[in-house]
Design a protein that fits this description.
- This protein is an alpha+beta fold.
- It has a domain of 86 residues: Glutaredoxin (3-Layer(aba) Sandwich).
- The chain has a four-stranded mixed β-sheet with strand order 2-1-3-4, sandwiched between helices.
- Helix 2 packs antiparallel against helix 4.
- The termini are far apart.
Length: 124
């Protein structure tokens, strides 16, 4: 009889996965987020041990982009922002209201350019 249970277990798993995929996460409290990190247009959430955070920090400096940075482990504001964003890794880059999770320099440059925060002669 285990063969008969497998299809129903499989059907249950598929149905549960479908429901989970349709569920929308609760909206982020943007007012609380900005109260924690301020109004800077570019904010990076990082950790001191994170190699990708170091790479993104170097990219932002090379692109001559002003940014605020908050450590998610050592800074109360960074910890609060990370929690509000339901972070699951670092770095997290916020460009105005847009979010880039992880090290994605091409996406970061795209958002910075569209926000008018990159100079035209900035090195890739």
């Amino acid at each position: 009889m285990p063969v008969r249970r497998l299809p129903s277990a499989l059907a249950f798993s598929v149905a549960f996965a479908g429901l989970a995929a349709c569920a929308r996460p609760a909206p982020i409290d943007r007012q609380a987020l900005r109260a924690a990190i301020g109004d800077a247009p570019v904010v990076m959430l990082s950790a001191s041990w994170c190699g990708y955070c170091r790479k993104l920090r170097a990219d932002l400096r090379r692109w001559d982009v002003a940014f605020s940075e908050f450590d998610v482990e050592d800074d109360a504001a960074g910890t609060q922002a990370y929690s509000l964003l339901r972070g699951n890794g670092v770095p997290i880059l916020l460009v105005n209201e847009h979010r880039v999770s992880g090290y994605a320099p091409s996406r970061a440059r795209e958002l910075l350019a569209s926000a008018g925060l990159l100079r035209s002669g900035t090195i890739h």
